[in-house]
Amino acid sequence: MNKNIIVVGANQTGLVFAAFAKTAGFDVTVYEAKKQCDVAYDWTDDMVEETFEEVGMPLPPKEIYTRKRNWTFVPPEKGVLRGKVTSVIFKGIHYQILVQCGRYEIEIQSTAAPAMGDSIGLTIEPDGIHVMKKVFRVNQFTGVITKKNTVKFGDGEFECDVTQLYPGSHLDEEGYLITAKGEKLVLTDTEVNVEVGLQDITMSDNPDEGGAQGQIISLIYKSEYYRYIVRTENEEDYVLACEDLWNENDLVSLVIPPEKIKLTLKNPEETKL
Predict the structure, then answer these.
(1) I need a labelling partner for 179 at 20 to 30 A (CA). Which of 94, 113, 195, 227 fits?
(2) Least confident span in 51-60, 96-105, 113-122
């Protein structure tokens, strides 16, 4: 087998490939039209100093030699986080490294690769931290109580516990709400605020099982679960978390246990006696 390799272009890809090929025992020659001092030094990838040393090139000036990747792995005792390496995949220019830190999985891209199973520390530069909006954690709707003491919201109708609207209340045999003071209230058409957590909604392919129906318009894998957005016919959106994989555009029904639907009065001063 011919073990001679010619690399045309001393750019980042060419040099990294040349270094790996040389390590693998190939005879590598790199051709570059520019002078060595003019080669593209303005790299912003996660290049390490050893890469330049291996290919016999001087380090670029510090002001243009920057690290684009925010995460850097270090010995465990020097990291702000500690984790175990669960995956190392070479992607042509860099390694894709997965590190399990407790219940979270962190992805790192680097030209240096730890070994599978290594315990490593992780650091991040202050300018690599991006403050984002609060994560979406609860669905919020405006709903209406029906004469059956169910609640209509989000283009659907669900069983619920209406007694939470008035602490200490209960329903009599006729379905009227009796307050702690003994007042009899008619809740029909009472406007309420509705909250449902992401983990409290499940999907079913049985259209009669859930209180609302919709189509999956988005799914994102979140390491421990998939986050779905289900949109109803009248464009009401439900956001939910589920470990099972469904397909985008699937038509599903949405099931919410009554005890998981949180209700508060939209207008507490309005009551019907």
Answers:
(1) 195
(2) 51-60
The pTM assigned to this predicted structure is 0.52
pLDDT at 109 over 70: yes
Query: Beta-carbon neighbour count of residue 169 at 10 Å?
Result: 16
Work out the number of other CB atoms within 10 angstroms of the CB of residue 173.
5
Question: 66: pLDDT confidence band, cut at 50, 70 and 90?
Answer: very low
For the cut 70, the answer to whether the pLDDT of residue 69 exceeds it is: no
CA angle 23, 11, 13 (to 5 degrees): 50
2: its two tokens:
């011919």
Tokens of 123: 């650091």
The secondary element (H helix, E strand) that includes residue 251 is: strand 251-255
**In the chain, what percentage of residues exceed pLDDT 90?**
45
Task: Catalogue the E-assigned strands of 75-198.
Answer: 81-90, 95-101, 104-110, 119-124, 138-145, 150-153, 156-159, 170-171, 177-178, 184-185, 191-197
**DSSP result, 10-68:** -SHHHHHHHHHHHHTT-EEEEE-SS-GGGS-----S---HHHHHHTT-PPPPTTT----
Q: CB atoms < 10 A from the CB of 21, how many?
A: 15
